[in-house]
Write a structure and sequence with these properties.
Length: 348
């Protein structure tokens, strides 16, 4: 049974852009900002640890799923690709990497060698998008029943590789690629099934069970497993698992991410709401909020919010910052960078 408050005309704008995905991106980027700002308080407040674990288990997988969903237009029917999209990601990464590095050098006073291979801060996501779009034309030749299980198998294995970590964000490239492929192969009709109570109710119950487990069994809140950029042998929380079965911990992460991510998508509003238009600018929030987060870590700002009211204040600040970084003038530099056309130069 499906119950909707919207008719088909209220689900998208005149150009056919579905409001649902912009709604999802705004809420997801707000959760990214809030989780980052709250992370220094995890050791102080158990419920913050539970909230951080819950949010981080699904927010990037859901973001990546949506990125994969819209990657369908990257490959045309005649197997040609839109070079401009990958080129834009490269430009955004290079400019952002330089900007974040200079901020850390001259504002925070940190000193480290400049690198274009090891992404600073959250810029690993842009590196992943570049690599995923480069390999997608080859992987997309296979059916989903082959590509997705193969990607999961590689991801489960890659945790045993001790050298595959932050270089070119390779660990995250492999671990998160199945989410990207799930989005790519997923159809809108499949997404629409989430809005039925037949799917929504079991998902809500399963998610409630997971959050209860995170609360009652702190050992399940394994941060390094969730962030996906560590090899199995460096994750203390899973060392009790026999070496040959360490992959099962990552498989459990996939199951939890799917349940929480699908639940999140199933309860979102599908029509236009107050924040819908802001969801189109999640990239500027993703990059800009990191400057504030790095300053928070450097100057230990979280120590001023070590109370219940302080946590509420952090969440409010995260929301205000999400809205602020989604509007002009903060979005202007990113819009200009995305207008740099290189596809004509590479057409031949």
């Amino acid at each position: 049974m499906s119950f909707s408050l919207y008719n088909n005309r209220e689900l998208c704008n005149e150009k056919g852009r579905l409001y649902f995905y912009d709604n999802a991106k705004f809420i997801l980027i707000f959760l990214v900002v809030a989780a980052h700002f709250l992370s220094p308080l995890k050791p102080v407040f158990p419920f913050v640890r539970v909230a951080w674990t819950t949010i981080n288990t699904f927010h990037m997988p859901a973001f990546i799923f949506i990125s994969g969903f819209f990657a369908k237009s990257y490959i045309s029917a005649d197997r040609t690709i839109k070079v401009q999209r990958t080129s834009t990601y490269v430009i955004l990464f290079l400019v952002s990497q330089i900007a974040v590095t200079l901020f850390e050098w001259f504002v925070l006073g940190d000193r480290f060698p400049f690198s274009l291979t090891n992404a600073r801060s959250s810029l690993w996501f842009l590196q992943c998008l570049i690599i995923w779009h480069l390999v997608l034309p080859y992987v997309a030749r296979f059916k989903s029943a082959v590509a997705i299980p193969a990607a999961i198998g590689v991801a489960l294995y890659i945790g045993y590789e001790t050298q595959c970590a932050n270089f070119m964000a390779l660990s995250r490239v492999f671990v998160h690629f199945p989410f990207f492929l799930c989005g790519y192969y997923c159809t809108q009709s499949t997404v629409d099934r989430l809005f039925t109570w037949k799917a929504r109710l079991p998902l809500l119950l399963l998610s409630a069970g997971l959050i209860t487990m995170f609360s009652l069994v702190p050992e399940t809140c394994v941060g390094k497993l969730i962030t996906s950029n560590y090899s199995y042998d460096t994750i203390e929380g899973i060392r009790s698992i026999p070496f040959s079965f360490l992959w099962s911990a990552r498989l459990a992460f996939y199951v939890a991410a799917f349940i929480l991510g699908a639940t999140f998508l199933s309860v979102l509003p599908r029509g236009r709401v107050a924040y819908t238009s802001l969801g189109a600018h999640s990239l500027s929030v993703y990059i800009l909020h990191r400057f504030v987060y790095l300053a928070e870590l450097e100057y230990n700002w979280a120590s001023y919010f070590s109370s219940g009211w302080g946590i509420a204040a952090i969440i409010a600040i995260a929301f205000v910052m999400t809205v602020l970084f989604s509007v002009k003038p903060f979005t202007i530099p990113f819009n200009l960078l995305q207008r740099i056309r290189v596809d004509k130069l590479l057409r031949n």
